[in-house]
Amino acid sequence: MLPTVAIVGRPNVGKSTLFNRLVGKKLALVDDQPGVTRDRREGQAHLLGLDFTIIDTAGYEDEDPQSLPGRMRLQTQAAVENCDVALFLVDARAGVTPLDEEIARWLREGDAPVVLVANKAEGKASEGGVMEAFGLGLGEPIPFSAEHGQGLADLFQALLPHLEREDEEGADAEDDSEADIESAPLKLAIVGRPNAGKSTLINRLLGENRLLTGPEAGITRDSIAVDWSWTSREGVERPVRLIDTAGMRKRAKVQDKLEKLAVSDGLNAVNFAEVVVLLLDATRGLEAQDLRIADKVLEEGRALVIALNKWDTVENGSALYQGIKQALSDGLAQVRGVPIMTVSAATGKGLDDLIHVAFETRTAWSQRISTGILNRWFERALEANPPPAPGGKRIKLRYITQNKTRPPTFVLFGTRLDELPESYRRYLVNGIRKELGFGAVPVRLTLRSAKNPFGK
């Protein structure tokens, strides 16, 4: 069950407009005349990573309980009694009215936490109303504009302490969807230069000559998907969709039209995959083209695993492994610690470990961190290493939220973010990977500054 937030206030202060803003759809009717909303309307709201049920209520009026406005008021009271937090809207342009004061007294007597929102606060004409709202005894009002979407960041910060516990419980509820992901077939693409042994590896996994192989380079043209079942170490059968792709040579060497189409098809297979295994021919070491392929995989946001094939034929393997590991660390600086596995497609050595690591990598690639846990880590990261102050003016980082998975994508909110050094951004991304369990999967971090309506 998601936490619930009830919007209350006198008629025509913008409750339904705020409701529509938070659910992202025009579900509630909105009009200039008061009293349009009569029943409680519920919707699923999403505010910068916070998920909750939002309840739009009728305008609170002091009427006889048997009258229609009185019965509407009873519906509003029931919504507040059962909510986790109440959003009390006042009209900043009109200022505080006697009915606002009566609603504030009623809310103060109740048990529900209250967040005071001064709506219609765009423009200087609203400043007096915002100041008047302090007198309602419900804490600092949030200047807001439901119509224009101004003040969402402040509303997030005000709701977070009240919904944080429920948000983490919501993250537990989300485990159901994560469980669905775990039981779904792992989409695993095998990519690499020609003749690295991609088709041979898949045939070994399948236990049959399903794909055409041979000493000639470039046999595979189409990306071939084969469904297979892998038995884990615990004896659990897990479905896998193996995707064989054409060898990817350096672009300048690709002249044949069919080869161009095959490489293009292989790149499309990368987009379709969840985890991509870059298969290297260990006897040839690491080449520049391997780094280009790896970079393309990470650019597409796929989880990457490196596999060194033909390891059974390698001499002085320890020195070769360390050399390739260092070269990958230097060449893929944006994602350090990519898993490197040693395998032999010819003998099957190391293939079971490869699939095991691929499943683990998908789990990290698919996980979502609750907003509460994420922002507690964020506060620790800022304390350990505060952002710089170019020109003596501090860059203010306000909060962070995860808005996507697969790949994990985060949005950082603050002011003067255009001056945040790339080194500090890398510090945050590396902290997310290391401390929140994302490992070496690609993590995306976008910066977003609040718009200042008076900036011009």
Automatic annotation (TrEMBL):
Domain EngA-type G: 3-167, 186-366
Binding residues for GTP 2: 192-199, 244-248, 309-312
Highest taxon of the lineage: Bacteria
CDD domains the record matches: EngA1, EngA2
Gene3D superfamilies: 3.30.300.20, P-loop containing nucleotide triphosphate hydrolases
Matching InterPro entries: G_ENGA, GTP-bd, GTPase_Der, KH_dom-like, KH_dom-like_a/b, P-loop_NTPase, Small_GTP-bd
GO molecular function: hydrolase activity
Entry keyword set: GTP-binding, Hydrolase, Nucleotide-binding, Repeat, Ribosome biogenesis
Binding site for GTP 1: 9-16, 56-60, 119-122
Pfam families reported in the protein's UniProt record: KH_dom-like (PF14714), MMR_HSR1 (PF01926)
Protein task: GTPase that plays an essential role in the late steps of ribosome biogenesis.
Family in the record: Belongs to the TRAFAC class TrmE-Era-EngA-EngB-Septin-like GTPase superfamily. EngA (Der) GTPase family.
Oligomeric and partner information: Associates with the 50S ribosomal subunit.
Protein name (record): GTPase Der
Organism name: Sphingobium naphthae
